Automatic annotation (TrEMBL):
PANTHER family: DUF306 DOMAIN-CONTAINING PROTEIN, HEAT SHOCK PROTEIN HSLJ. It comes from Flavobacterium fluviale. InterPro entries: DUF306_Meta_HslJ, HslJ-like_sf, Hsp_HslJ-like. Residues 37-140 form the DUF306 domain. It holds the Pfam family META. This is DUF306 domain-containing protein.
Length: 143
């Protein structure tokens, strides 16, 4: 009888641990998923308080966001990586990789560095505003 009771307790503990892990996994997935309103293409308009021009980039940089990753262009080089959202208004561009073609894009390095340090966002009037610990860094229009 003791053996049956011990097996029952061991089985119950194993099942409860599995349920906890599954619940934690679902919670982590929800934390990573980016809000629907961000999941589209955004074209850069403003970089560090200055309207960008064709002199700054050969083509206007853009970012295409999905629920968990992003891709796009610096105007010359392709970029991609993962997105992490820790709730509304908070976002990070993780594991950002970029091609290394030689470009005539004067602001490419600045754009990449600001993406890497992004920690927050807001959307107003169909524009995306990205910020880091120092404040607003970039703005985008819908693409």
């Amino acid at each position: 009888m003791k053996k049956i009771l011990m097996l029952f307790i061991a089985g119950s503990l194993a099942f409860s641990c599995k349920s906890s892990k599954e619940a934690a996994s679902v919670a982590a997935t929800n934390e990573k998923s980016v809000e629907k309103k961000l999941q589209q293409t955004w074209i850069l308009e403003n970089l560090n308080g200055k309207v960008i021009t064709e002199k700054d980039f050969s083509n206007f940089p853009k970012v295409q966001m999905t629920s968990s990753n992003f891709s796009g262009s610096t105007g010359c080089n392709a970029i991609k990586g993962n997105l992490l959202s820790k709730g509304e208004g908070k976002i990070q561009f993780l594991e950002l990789t970029s091609e290394t073609k030689k470009c005539d894009a004067k602001k490419e390095g600045e754009f990449l560095q600001l993406l890497r340090t992004t920690s927050g966002y807001s959307i107003e009037n169909n524009k995306l505003y990205l910020s880091n610990q120092f404040g607003l860094t970039m703005s985008f229009k819908k693409g």
